[in-house]
Design brief:
Helix content is about 40%, strand content about 15%. By secondary structure, it is α/β, with parallel strands linked by helices. The strands form 4 sheets. The chain has a 7-stranded mixed β-sheet with strand order 8-7-6-1-2-5-14, with helices on both faces. A 3-stranded antiparallel β-sheet has the order 9-10-11, covered by helices on one side. It has a two-stranded antiparallel sheet with strand order 3-4. The longest helix is centred in the middle third of the chain and has 24 residues. It starts with 8 loop residues before the first strand and ends in a 6-residue tail after the last strand.
Length: about 400
Amino acid sequence: MSGPLKGCRVIELSHIMAGPCCGLMLADMGADVIKVEKETGDDTRRSVPPDINGESAAYMMMNRNKRGIVLNLKSDGGKDALLRLVKDADVLLENYRKGTMERLGLGYDELKKLNPGLIYAEISGFGRTGPYAERGGFDLIAQGMSGLMSITGEAPGRQPVKVGAPVSDITAGILTAMGISAAYAHKLKTGQGQKIDTSLFEAAIVHTYWQSAIAFATNESPGAMGSAHPLNAPYQAFQTSDGWINIGAANQSNWERLTELIEAPELKENPKFTTNADRMNNRLELETELNEKFCKRSTQEWLDIFEEGGLPSGPVLSVMEMHKDPQTIARNMVPEVDHPVAGKVQTIGLPLKFSQTPGSINSAAPLLGQHTHEVLLEIGYSEQEAKNLLDTGAALCSDHGG
């Protein structure tokens, strides 16, 4: 592995998405992420269809670049193996319900005695404190309770709509990776570890920055606006003769440029649209006027005009169209890895580019227990001791394991 976190060892005790998302971010930046699974594996292994040669596409997406081992943490042998891992680790990452790790004797208060420099990161539904700390959490629930679903959709009064991507899961993973990186910098300076605690709920809340600012200022909750922006206009999708195009005329100069490029001086001169405040107050009328203009040409025709004129714009692509876009490819956002069962599979690349310590994606997601034997030997077990753990069910090793 290469990257700015090379030399950092992370023990990942997480499943589904938020924790694994954090782990893959750290792994892509060079950390040695050892994913510890239960005997039946991360539940995402059973998130099928779709699959590739029997391997879950969802699991492979969230767990590339990691090594995978299986330990039965309810057994003395499995728990002992985890403690050996923790002794020299930099980070332990977990997203179990509150109290699970403590019942296993693996809570932060216990593990920091073994490793004072340990960074112990927890991701939960609502955080480890507060009246909802005992609740489990899912992305859908977090989106609803954070206010996100009230501002997503076509208009107020319509059926609630969640953001299509599981943004609270993904954002919680990214926030935790950021927190771990900051805590690791502190550890390198002081030798001190610490506990990090975030949640899907908080991760969803941070997406309401603009809408919360409006609510703080007006004492009213903003509602759904389709693709429109709550503070600037025109900044949204418009239908063309053959599809949709996004227009970013969010400041005065771009608004005036837009009216020139679509040959609509009457819109620039209309007092209802003079300033951004005017355009926001008359947004629906502005949409109607612009829709009449945009429907007269194709998406590509408009894109060519706006590209030449320097107006921010872009097509509304499907996921597969995005995968094939030349900018996506140029930024190495759809790399390919070799999987021992699924063969060559594509994944999503690292969205951070480092000039001195570039991250990389080197390996596919591990098979269940693929690296158990290898890791047990690394942490001091003899061949016979490792065999005993496997024979007693305290650990599990795949046929492809080292």
